[in-house]
Amino acid sequence: MIQSSVQPADILIVDDTPENLRLLSSMLEETGYKVRKATNGKQALKAIEAQSPDLILLDILMPEMNGYQIAKHLKSIDSTREIPIIFLSALNDTMDKVFAFDVGGVDYITKPFQMQEVLVRVRTQITLREQQKQLLDQNKKLQQEIKERKKVESALRVYIHAVSHDLRNPVTGMLILLNNLLAKKSSDSPSTLTINTNIIEQMAKSCDRQLNLLNSLVETSDTSLQGISVNCQPLDLVDFTQQIIAEWQPVFEKNRVILDTELPSSLPPVQADYHQIWRVFDNLISNAIKYNPPGLTLTLSAEIISEKKSKSKNYTQWIKYTISDDGIGVKPEEAEELFELYKRGKNVGKIKGLGLGLYLCRQIINAHGGKIGVIANKNSGASFWFTLPVLS
Q: Does the keyword field hold Kinase (predicted)?
């Protein structure tokens, strides 16, 4: 008798001879197996469909549907292909045995069979079946571990790229400031520089933003590497825009950017994360300058829009902020995919980039509950817009 704490193996016996069914089922049940019986092919297939057995003992010579036909059918279906089949038959010709193995049998027992022989062969196949299941389970676990590891590695790669990508703009701006200062040093006193306090304050603010950016990225990596966490506070976009312009002024001057600001003075404050929204502006302005020739006209504008709440007559107010340029534009068919991870437009030429900036912008705006998009027109500039909720 098999002594086991696990569920006993399920064996299906298919034979049109009642005496064979009685003898085999009695012997196997006494040994500790769970046994089901079928007297023809239709019954067998119905029983297998109801519950897949661990092993099938299958007679060959049966009316309507013989054992070979049943085996072929089972081996043609993914869910039953791996069930081991031991053929039982009075046929003792070599070709009959060869054909039995050809249609998927794992063993062949000739009638009249010896009980001990049947038990040994059944035990062997059940053991192999259990080992196969263990291997399949281990393989599934391994595949899942590989999938999860790849996901973590991919997220970590995005995180590292995000750090390098978003630090590039403030570092570039500070470098331009420093080079401008060095260019103005006096020939009479080359080791001494006179620096305006406003410039020192601007550089200090830039360093502070870089540290905050690093902190926010590290916090993001501690929770969900690809997630964006926001700490929303009231934000005056008019004042915020002036800070952005002051930060970018050296870059604007170097690239001969003409700036046109069209913001209503009465613009209400929004609920937003100061540092995360700064990343959005940095990326959108940087892209406009990077992918267009010098002398670009950059227009910053904003308007209040209302959106009806679902299943309600109430309306929610949003600020729709738009950053437009008169550059080479974006092809309309490429507009939507620009916000996908590592996607770049086909007209960027040899300009270096990761295709990460707009993806990060979308993640940040989505985290605020807003939307982001682009109005694309080839050869007539591009307008990138996003929405932020008005402080209620």
A: yes
Question: Token pair for residue 204?
Answer: 């200090």
- Residue 23 has which token pair? 């003898």
**Gap between the Cα atoms of 159 and 315, Å rounded:** 37
Higher pLDDT among residues 313 and 220, named by residue: 313
| Superfamily of domain 10-113 in the CATH hierarchy | Response regulator (3.40.50.2300)
Give long-range contacts, CB 8 A cutoff, 24+ apart: 313-319: 316/389, 316/390, 317/268, 317/389, 317/390, 317/392, 318/370, 318/387, 318/388, 318/389, 318/390, 319/237, 319/267, 319/268, 319/270, 319/387, 319/388, 319/390
Answer with the residue of higher pLDDT: 187 or 243.
243
- Identify the weakest region by mean pLDDT among 4-13, 143-152, 165-174: 165-174
Cβ atoms within 10 A of the Cβ of 309, count?
9
> Model confidence over 104-137: pLDDT tens digits?
999 999 888 888 999 999 999 999 989 988 898 8
**Average pLDDT score over the chain:** 83
**If you average pLDDT over residues 154-174, what whole number do you get?**
67
Tokens 């929610």 label which residue? Answer: 316
Beta bridge partners of 108: 87
